[in-house]
Write a structure and sequence with these properties.
By secondary structure, this protein is an alpha+beta fold. It has helices spanning 9-14, 35-53, 105-113, 147-163, 190-207, 272-281; strands spanning 26-28, 33-34, 58-62, 72-74, 86-88, 99-101, 116-121, 134-141, 169-172, 178-183, 212-213, 225-228, 255-256. The strands form 4 sheets. The chain has a 6-stranded mixed β-sheet, covered by helices on one side. Helix 2 packs across helix 3. The longest helix is centred in the N-terminal third of the chain and has 19 residues, at 35-53. The protein is globular. The structure holds adenosine-5'-triphosphate and manganese (II) ion (MN) (2 copies). Residues 59, 73, 120, 138, 140, 173, 175-177, 228, 237-239, 267 line the site of adenosine-5'-triphosphate.
Length: 302
């Protein structure tokens, strides 16, 4: 009896099997994005997004009534949670809290069903809780900083990372700034990765005190870019590549190629509405090399 060949991997991955209740519920009224629209956006991006959100603790910004309603940041599982969302137990946590995880596309659809309008993973996977597999430098422009200076800052961070033998990738945050992300072989532990990123931020701030600051003192931020290295500590999160943001216009955190950065006009340029056209128009995934470009952190000298 001839057997039906299994469906292609991507077709399987893209199939949505979780039934959405109230698919027409509006999540972003200004952009006209519904629950179903969000599910379709994520289903299309699933193959690219999965490695950044599967099997790692996730913090969620949940907005049960959509972007304009009440919101809360959630790090632990909850009663009545969608069955495709899984509990993850932090081996170092003595309080016995259960963190939020997903294993598959159904899990992501469970997050959509739960009105998680932002997905913020840890920088480590559950395969190795103590050793981050990415370093994130979060560039936060203060009031009055021209966008071109945010681009310059990303390039300066990239250069320092390259000097240390790391490969850097850049994405919009979907908010105000950029995130420069270096994939790591999970070798160094949290303390070392944090010390390295702190040193990197402080070195850049010492070189260009007119442009950068490395400490979170709001009063001194006007006109400068905060090099927020504190995404790199145990339990800290940063928004996932391709995650939507609960902000006006349904912006997303969009991975970019370095050679297109100069043409980007702002952090919220890419949205649920225009992401599909952008991705279709690109020949390749700008972060295609991310997982092959993992290097161990050699030292904490920056
Ligand atoms: P922007 O470009 O506007 O700075 P961003 O995502 O980088 O966007 P930040 O304010 O710089 O925003 O970073 C805040 C980070 O802190 C988030 O990425 C999130 O993962 C984390 N975070 C921790 N606690 C919270 C909270 N209660 N609410 C929102 N974010 C939180
Ligand atoms: Mn930021
Ligand atoms: Mn920040």
């Amino acid at each position: 009896v001839p057997q039906t060949p299994p469906p292609a991997r991507s077709a399987t991955e893209r199939k949505r099997t979780v039934a959405l209740t109230h698919p027409d519920r509006v999540y972003w009224p200004d952009a006209g994005v519904t629950k179903e629209g969000l599910a379709d956006y994520y289903a299309a991006l699933w193959p690219r997004m999965a490695p950044f959100i599967v099997d790692r603790p996730l913090a969620l910004l949940r907005c049960p009534e959509g972007m304009t309603g009440p919101r809360f940041f959630q790090k632990n599982v909850w009663k009545g949670m969608n069955a495709h969302i899984r509990a993850l137990d932090d081996p170092a946590d003595e309080a016995g809290d259960h963190l939020i995880g997903i294993h598959d596309l159904d899990g992501l659809m469970g997050l959509v069903q739960s009105a998680a309008l932002e997905i913020h993973p840890w920088g480590a996977s559950c395969r190795d809780w103590e050793r981050p597999d990415q370093l994130v430098m979060d560039l936060d422009p203060g009031d009055g900083v021209p966008w071109e200076q945010v681009i310059d800052a990303a390039q300066a961070v990239r250069a320092r990372l390259q000097t240390s033998g790391l490969t850097a990738f850049v994405k919009t945050s979907g908010g105000k700034g950029l995130h420069v992300v270096a994939p790591l072989k999970p070798v160094a532990e949290w303390e070392a990765v944090k010390a390295f990123s702190k040193n990197l931020a402080q070195t850049l701030a010492a070189d260009r005190p007119d442009r950068f600051i490395a400490t979170i003192t709001k009063s001194k931020r006007r006109g400068k870019i905060l090099l927020d290295y504190l995404r790199n500590q145990r339990g800290a999160t940063s928004v996932a590549p391709y995650s939507t943001r609960a902000r006006a216009g349904a912006p997303v955190s969009m991975p970019l190629a370095w050679d297109e950065l100069g043409a980007i006009t702002g952090s919220a340029q890419f949205t649920v509405g225009n992401a599909a056209a952008r991705i279709a128009s690109l020949r390749t995934d700008p972060w295609e090399e991310f997982h092959a470009a993992r290097h161990p952190l050699a030292s904490a000298t920056g």
